[in-house]
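Pipeline run #58 for the internal structure catalog. This entry was flagged by the ingest filter as a single-chain record with no existing model, so it goes straight to prediction. Upstream metadata was stripped on purpose; only the residue string is passed forward. Reviewer on rotation: M.T. Logging verbosity set to normal.
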Amino acid sequence: MRLLHVRTLLDLEEGKRVGPEAYILKELADEDLERVEYGILSHCWGAIEDEVQYKEMDALIRMGGAARKKLRQRSGYQKIQKSCEEAWKDGLAWLWVDTCCINKESSAELSEALNSMFRWYEDSERCYVFLHDLAAKSIPTTGNETAFPESSGWPRWFSRGWTLQELVAPNKVRFFNKDWHFIGDKKNHAQTISSITRIPSRILRHGLDAHHPSAAQIMSWAADRKTTRTEDRAYSLMGLFGVHMPMLYGEGKNAFRRLQLEIIRMSSDHSIFAWDRKDNGWSGSVLADDPSFFRDCDDIINMEPDEYLAALKGVVPESELIDVKEESIRTYTVTNAGIRIRLPLQRCRGSQSVFEARLACCRSVDSSPIPIFLVSFKSTYYRYFGHSQTIHGATATFQLLYLVYREEKRQRHFTFKVDDRALECEGFIRRCVFPKRIPFKDNTVTLSYTHHCAVIVYASSQTGICFALAVGYCSGYEWLHVISDTPPAQQFFDRGPTASDTWDSYAKRVYDRMWVVSPKHAPRVARAYTPTAAHLHLEEDGPCLVKHVHLPKSIRDVRRVVHK
């Protein structure tokens, strides 16, 4: 750890001469650090040209008067100077500042610093927080969107990724406004800071060890925080979980996946799987893409094995609960086939492939284990999000599962070419495509990661007949299905072909149904394309799948021909 010598910098600032043996930066080994008390600065970086880098600080003593005068005008130098003044008042001879105490040209040193940073803040005697955009002489108690529009109404420091551990780790944290007036400390303002950050006040007063929050709860504190680099969303959380990883800038969101795998390898915390997202569909991994997926997990707590098994009574037969060993709940491993874990599964209504699993964690106000939905494909399970319900009266059974954690490589968009010319000849008009945000151009439907399903409604006003074509992508496979069981009322047709709102309501009902059964249709279509499938036909342009669907209350049917 490289530290800044406080007295040397202040002497230079006061115009005093320093001897040839003086130094501004000194590297200390871990055993030396045990005997040294130091302060540490927590701040938001400004423009890179305003911050003082390692080489500039290292050359400060040898720097000429003009160059030093120019350096002193930078806002980055001024906050270092002010931090030194506060450290000297507190009787501290050393200070650590991330801008100038790390040689960032050395990837090895940068990686060591990022992996050690939580410990360095934790071991500091004082942490000085500089709120560069706050003019008030007290810590704000209410948000102000006008003053802080880009950080949810609070000073920017509270919205940054790295400052989360810089708030939690140190025992003594002192806050200063833009003019370096002291405005309060962490412990005396714990309740106010808790309302800003969602970190429980008891953790702010007594530290992580006094409470042992769940993985999901810690993730929730970072849900709305921002970092300049995507990878830092993960790297800035390592110390809070006590894990270490090599820095691989350029890996993007994979850094957060690696972080979750490291947490899994070190703990038996089921809450790491308790994340949620707002849109329906399936996820290519049981691991979250980003801390924001844990936004609503701030009240999730872990359950001890005996609490978990007691809460499963009535869901899992008692005869089976007796045989469940506590170590099977505490232990799960990362394998090349997936995350190997034993969970109670209960099949959902309307699908042979969707199951509800219950985790060994719960909400603080509810002792019921948190449920998540899984969709099975072959021997593995994916996360599933949709309108699913378990079968009333059915029981769950513990099963050994392999949860997919590697996001499979797949195309960004999935395109379906719809040739509906024959329908026009029969008087059918395309009434709507739902959701409206799904691109439909040149008779082509384009789906994406976030929009996995679309519904196209066709209807004939002459005959009063309609049907819907649903297309989607699930578990690595495209699927499509014709729905014709519930025609809309006649007034739908009377509104004319341009009145889409009424048809949208019908399409939405179909859309909601298809989310539930899409895991069933995807493997069916995949199996139908095997060489022995009964409906597979060989034509000039390759194999195609042909099926017929009868339209109710008519003598018509829809012939569906699908080409890969």
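catalog note: Confidence is low (pLDDT under 50) at residues 533-546.
catalog note: The CA atoms of residues 388 and 516 lie 6 Å apart.
status: ready for reviewer M.T.
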